[in-house]
Specification:
The protein is α/β, with parallel strands linked by helices. The protein has two domains: about 5-155 and about 340-410, FAD/NAD(P)-binding domain (3-Layer(bba) Sandwich); about 155-220 and about 270-330, 3-Layer(bba) Sandwich (FAD/NAD(P)-binding domain). About 35% of the residues lie in helices and about 20% in strands. The strands form four sheets. Strands 1, 2, 3, 4, 5, 6, 19 and 20 form an eight-stranded mixed beta sheet that branches. The chain has a five-stranded parallel beta sheet with strand order 8-18-9-10-14, with helices on one face. Strand 1 (about 5-10), helix 1 (about 15-30) and strand 2 form a beta-alpha-beta unit. Helix 1 packs parallel to helix 7 (about 365-375), helix 7 crosses helix 10 (about 415-425) and helix 9 (about 395-410) crosses helix 12 (about 440-470). The relative contact order is 0.14.
């Protein structure tokens, strides 16, 4: 017999954004919630990620609003030493498990359907969730809204096969398999220039692989944020907001796309791997200066586009062919962690919510903020406060994200309930500004925002035009 559950909200996806939304909704309302997810444990893609994965920003900025993540301490050694801790994949799974059990389920208002696939509504608008274990169907009658927490579509290599052909006999593995293959290989070829590729290279280096045995296939170079500029803690507030001010000053003063990024690099806000190669991408990734130094030890970097196929004795790329050697291990890091999906309205009528970023590079905060808007703002005004921030890919994405983030923040300031919510939001980095940041720094920040705002549309048009020209060339 089919089970029938009654709920106010059905959240599809128990990843970071689904959990952050549920947590904030629980705090700001008396709603009943059902959460459905294909994994056995909450945590979304962290269930599928490689064991040595870590956040690439401080733990403080991640998780759910009610429950701090980590011990708020600095790493004493390693390539992140002196900077605040970044949770590992296993730590994140434990954290989300505790939030689910100790916070959400303990409330008595949340049900969790694990290992179940959401099938959508039937003709009677009753939503189906089918068990992946035994095929049984749980029906859910939703009285308010379905919340889609999977729109970002985060992908990891272990769940997505390579997009290129691999000849029989070639050893090509996802980064998850790397620790299990910890024996000497003639050469290690890391395929992919994103955060996963960086992690694989750093894992190899930190575990004793000589840099001259690593080859890095880098389809595109990207700009990175210097992690030292985005640190929590009272001792870093002045630098944090000074860095934000510097970014807005660059926007206000730049007269072209290249000028903008030259300014951002000159003031230390953005960094690049190779000072002889001009990056064309931006994906919100951060690096420490020590990580950057380690990565620069890898001299065999191949910039000939994406991989087309791997043969026993060669690697065929868009721009040419390079050698393959006997005993070589290929590590596929080519899955796009954050696919460039077209934004959709966050609030779809009165019956659905599509969780997306509403602040640059801030998934957890964005989901919690959307929950606050859902609870505190009249329906007709919600979408105007939650314009989706576009996922970055091209370098101009850095500017596009800031343009929407600034507009959203400007509109939030006109709603007293939202501002009161922000004052108590753990995930909001600006919650500390009234008492912790020197007045002179905040005045510089405010002046920079004021100067950047009128300059943003013109600069954005110029940057986007240049991006289109490059794509057509």
């Amino acid at each position: 017999m089919q089970d029938l559950l009654e709920t106010d909200y059905l959240i599809v996806g128990a990843g970071a954004m689904g959990m952050a939304f549920a947590d904030a909704l629980l705090q700001e309302s008396d709603a009943r919630i059902v959460i459905v997810d294909r994994h056995a444990r909450p945590g979304g893609h962290w269930n599928d990620a490689y064991g040595y994965v870590r956040l690439h920003h401080p733990s403080t900025f991640y998780g759910v609003n009610s429950t701090p993540l980590g011990a708020d301490r600095k790493d004493a050694d390693g390539l992140n030493r002196g900077l605040y801790e970044m949770a590992s994949g296993p730590e994140l799974l434990d954290y989300f498990g505790e939030v689910m059990d100790g916070r959400l389920l303990a409330s008595g208002r949340v049900r969790y359907l694990a290992l179940a696939d959401y099938e959508g509504p039937d003709a009677h608008d009753v939503h189906g969730c089918r068990s992946l274990v035994n095929g049984s169907l749980t029906q859910v009658r939703v009285h308010r809204k379905v919340v889609h927490a999977t729109h970002t579509g985060t992908a990891v290599p272990s769940t997505h096969p390579p997009r290129y052909r691999v000849a029989p006999g070639v050893r090509c593995v996802a980064p998850n398999a790397l620790p299990a293959m910890a024996r000497e290989h003639t050469r290690y070829t890391v395929i992919g220039s994103g955060k996963t590729g960086i992690d694989a290279c750093l894992w190899l280096l930190q575990n004793g692989t000589p840099a001259d045995r690593i080859r890095w296939i880098m389809p595109n170079d990207a700009w990175f944020l210097d992690r030292a500029n985005v640190q929590p803690g009272p001792e870093n507030f002045e630098r944090f907001f000074g860095a934000l001010a510097a970014q807005f000053e660059c926007i206000a003063d730049a007269d072209s796309r290249r000028d903008l990024f030259q300014r951002l690099e000159a003031c230390g806000e953005l960094v690049r791997l190779d000072l002889q190669v001009w990056p064309t991408k931006y994906r919100c990734a951060t690096v420490s200066q020590e990580e950057l130094s380690a990565l620069r030890r890898i001299r065999n970097v191949v910039r000939q586009g994406r991989v087309r196929r791997i043969e026993l004795s060669s690697l065929v790329l868009e721009g040419g062919t390079v050698d393959g050697v006997e005993g070589e291990l290929y590590i596929d890091c080519s899955a796009c962690a954050i696919p460039a999906r077209a934004p959709v309205p966050v609030f779809e009528g009165e019956h659905a919510i599509h969780l997306q970023y509403v602040r640059t590079c801030a998934p957890s905060f964005s989901a919690a903020m959307i929950a606050a808007v859902e609870c505190l703002i009249p329906e007709a005004e919600k979408n105007a406060l939650c314009r989706p921030v576009p996922k970055p890919s091209e370098d101009v994405g850095w500017l596009q994200m800031w343009a929407v983030s600034m507009e959203n923040r400007r509109r939030w300031a006109k709603h007293a309930p939202l501002m009161r919510w922000l004052e108590g939001a753990r995930l909001d980095y600006s919650a500390c500004v009234r008492t912790q940041v020197p007045v002179a720094v905040m005045q510089r920040y405010a002046d920079a925002v004021k100067a950047a705002a009128p300059r943003m549309p013109e600069l954005l048009r110029a940057c986007e035009s240049r991006s289109e020209e490059r794509a057509l060339a």
